[in-house]
Amino acid sequence: MYIKPWKVMSTFTIAASLLITAGCGQQQASGEAKKKEDYAVPVTDYTFDTAGNMFAYAEFELSGEPLAETLGLNLDLLDPKKRNKPTEFDYIAGIESYEYSEEGMYEVVEKSGLGLHLINGPIVEKLAKEGGKQTPQILEERFYKLADSTGYPKEEIFRNMYPTFMEYSSGDPHYVQKVDTSEYAENDDKTYTPVYQVDFKTLRWDRDKMSKTLTPAAYGGAFLKQALWTGDFLGGFHTVDKDEELEATAADQDKDPNIRLGVSTADGFQGVVLAEEIWNKLAYIRDGLFYDAKTKQLTSGAGSQYNPANGFVYLPHEIKVTEEGKDAAKASKLEVSDSRSLLRDQWMMLWPASEFYGTTDQRPDNKNVNPAFQAVFDGAPFAAAPKENTDGTAENDVKAQDPYSVNRDVLLQVFKNLEAMHFNKEIGAFISTNDGQKQGDYVDSFDAGYTLEALRIFQRAIDGLPVGYASGADAQGLQTEEGKRAIEMMKKQADFMMDKMMTKDGLIANGFTVGKGPDEKPAALEAQLGAIRGLTAAYLATKEDKYREAARSLYNAVDTKMWDKKLKVYKTVDGKMQYTPYTAGSVSAALRLALLNLGNTEADKQQYPSLDKETVISRYVDFYNRVIDGPSLQEGMQASELWDTGDSYKKGDKSGNTDKDTVPQVQAGHGKYGIAPVLVNVEVKNKQ
Total structural domains in the chain? Predict the structure, then answer.
């Protein structure tokens, strides 16, 4: 029997969320790959960048099972123990890309301790105050209620979790004590489930090496991962007796005692836990992380009632946290250390808030809401929104604490600030910075491009169109004013890219300075990929073919001029091949778009060899094999892996690499005690 990590969990003890702060060293992993390669992919920086990792893993998720299934794969054929079956591409997409994404999220929000503990979340504290109880008891009761809503056995809830509601900007992903790989349960295939998969006590990171700052890109990146997986896990119902997925046809299906929330018992429970973390995150942001440019103080957001013309109130780039509490970190003091509004911060909040809006939407006018989502937010296990906040007018809106209302307030305020603080109406482009008083003068191609994708998801969400994995589906929208403004800004930014930022060699400039013109520095890969993402978003939102053709032309130029035929990787800038999580995520996205939206069709006048399906798939396979997994256990961006990507545990096997690939098990990875399954920075080099 194949057992997922969360299928065999021991009793939940919230008070045992321990922090372990022993020292951390370095060592070589055992079990080197046998094949000798003519290239090297050494790690250049182990620092865990929360924003970059969560961004990359969001793109990996979308380029995982959903992509493979769209291209015709029967997901039942996938088996982590059958490497490269049914094809190498299917295995990499459906197993590696997808599962790396999921496990990376859990490391951050449930295992590492990289942030503020959910026991101190504002919703948990509110419930404790109202009930006259202590927060540990309230959180335990909430977890039991969430388990009941999904039919999940209480005795199988993870032990020694460290659920976070606000994540820090960076940390050191090396473990600080020996990971407990001893046997918890034996499986039918003679493998065993190690203790660390059900008890997270030994998976903490070094608290002294965490950057205890709150940046919108970081907590927004974690929010994005949580929102995407929440939508995936809670998008259907399941039966209790057979744990079979059921299509959602009505919001009250879960009134049947044999039907519970979520596409399965385990996934449903994970989904509601993620929603609980998101709910507390949003309440904390809405009620205290906005910055008033006039008073220079942190304050609450006003959502639909906010008018930027009366003074900017926005999410600042960086807030320093002073912690209290050893076992469950709480913020005793918040201090704004960088009050600028950065475009990257804003689009990395707009995107997840839009995704979650599609999950929590309770507007009667929206006929496209999944009934399974409605069942989650109908009062149990999550509070329903007041009718004033779900009708067609904003004038009567009230401040409320339910998930829909707090998310809507954050979403609308971020959108309004994106328009008022970052969109330059004179040139029709998004500016990278605003100091709270005035706008800067630089248009960054990567961030402007991804702003278009965030706006595309926003427009779909606010107009009541499907988001998540179904964000490409056609449907009848609500034609809101906000949606219309989003489309208008998207078109202007895309036109600006095409008219003002393209270079003579067919690439796009890294950026554009107002009053001066486009950058003349060597073209960076990230800039190209961000622009491809943005132009494709403009096409999907408007159906105007000129944007698709521009994206196709740019993709072809990248493949022609930046692909190293010998090493089979993309050059990142000026002949070098230095990869950060942002680079990796945008490569994954561009390859997915090439397969789904930009590939050659019979109707295309221009047939690019680079956009033939077989060519794109070969690039995808090379990218994951060479850059992400790397040529040896000490190389590649994916620092380690566990169970769901094929590396099982067997008695007597000390290799730390039972599937014989080039990614070590967590305890055998880089460092004295191993390293979390996350992305690190690398550089691809030719050995000769």
Answer: 1
pTM over 0.70? The answer is: yes
Tens digit of each residue's pLDDT (9 = 90 or more) over 538-592:
999 999 999 999 999 999 999 999 999 999 999 999 999 999 999 999 999 999 9
The neighbour count for residue 363, using CB atoms within 10 Å, is: 18
**3-state helix, strand and coil shares in percent for the chain, rounded to the nearest 5:** 45, 15, 40
| Tokens of residue 242, six digits | 């057979």
Provide the phi-psi class of 188: left if phi over 0, else alpha when psi is between -120 and 50, else beta.
alpha
Query: What is the C-alpha to C-alpha distance for residues 597 and 552, in angstroms, rounded to an integer?
Result: 9
Q: How far apart are CA 367 and CA 684, in angstroms?
A: 49
Please state, in angstroms and rounded to a whole number, the distance separating the CA atoms of residues 229 and 359.
Answer: 11
At residue 36 the predicted structure's pLDDT band, cuts being 50, 70 and 90, is: low
Q: Please report the DSSP string for 151-169 in residue order.
A: T--GGGSPBS---EEEE-S
d(CA 198, CA 79): 22
Where in the sequence is the domain holding 80, given as residue range(s)?
5-686
Return the H-helix or E-strand segment holding 333.
strand 330-338
Taking 60 as the threshold, does the pLDDT of residue 5 lie above it? no
Q: Is the peptide bond before 86 cis (omega within 30 degrees of 0)?
A: yes
Q: What is the DSSP string of 129-159?
A: HHHT--HHHHHHHHHHHHHHHHT--GGGSPB
